[in-house]
Amino acid sequence: MDNTWDMASSAPTSVMSERTKSRIKSFLFLIPSTKQIEYVLSFHCQRGSASAVKAISSHVTTPNKPLKHCQLFHPLIHAIKGGTSRHNKCVRELLVGRVNPNHRSKKSGLTPLQIALDRPNFKGYANLIWLLFTSEPRKLDPNGTDLRGEVPLFRFFLGADEEPLEAHKRGGLIMLLKAGADPNRQQPGTGNSLLHLAVRRKDAVVTAILLHVGVDVNAMNLSGTSPLQITAAQFHQPQGGEEVLDHLLKNGAKVDQPAGALRRTTLHWAVRAGNTTAIRRLLDGGANVTTKDKEQRDAIALAVKHTNKVFVSKTVLGVGDHRLGEAVTEVEAGDHIEIMQGLMGKAPDDYHIKGFLHQGTYAI
């Protein structure tokens, strides 16, 4: 999109009325103060009147005396929040006036780029982002942080939404990465990487994009959890993000890394959920069936333990792993057989199942 600047220039612009021209002329004749210029520019940026913004800035700016950053920055924020092609043209005029695109808002602590990324989708969303990146002579920093130390890339993952990113946000993410945004930054407070957040949303497309640009597949957040281990919480769901799991495994995710108070691996949790698809993928990815958790149970022992509870729960209402605060997942007999056969197929030849089985139940 190299012609974005020209696209903004050719976007439809409201023509100034003779009354507006007269008011601007009178305003400039009075030699307005810094605050007055800021106010009037903000007013026209809110309205999306690029012709008025251009008329004012061109008359009060000279090569040797550019406008102060405050006179342009607040109008820039108003123009960005406008969310139309006309407002984008106001952004262009302010960038021509040498506004600093890396300045932080004193009110929100955000940079213009972060505010732009937060906008709901509109026809000129991508153009707005590229306008900021193509500004001259002040170059936009794709890794410029807000007052919390958070980089713009994390704005795409705001909130507790667990759905994949919308198409316009995916496009914005790609633009930032192409402009030099660092995909391995960590989120203040949580230590989450972008990959953690993409995996949490079960977004296979964004996961693949991040892995392609070199994100650390085994990055740990502040709780000691890797992106692969986040998939464990999804195994009990109808669509457990198997495609995301495949991307992680193919790109070198450590399958036997333990996490949490119980020090369980992703395979432990896949067995606990009875997710045959995830178990198969993890075993194909080299997961060790004899790795033990804090309770000294490997995946096979956990499967046996879980089987006892499943069979008991069919006859005794409410039986579950109360100590762990977990609900029992009903597993069909055929799935259980497949799980046990898969696990035992990867076990050492001298492996023996240990532990108590309830009367009338079998490991396989």
UniProtKB/TrEMBL annotation:
ANK repeats lie at residues 190-222, 262-294. It comes from the Eukaryota. The keyword Lipid biosynthesis does not apply. Pfam families: Ank, Ank_2. Keywords: ANK repeat, Repeat. InterPro entries: Ankyrin_rpt, Ankyrin_rpt-contain_sf. SUPFAM superfamilies: Ankyrin repeat (SSF48403). This is Ankyrin. It comes from Podospora pseudocomata.
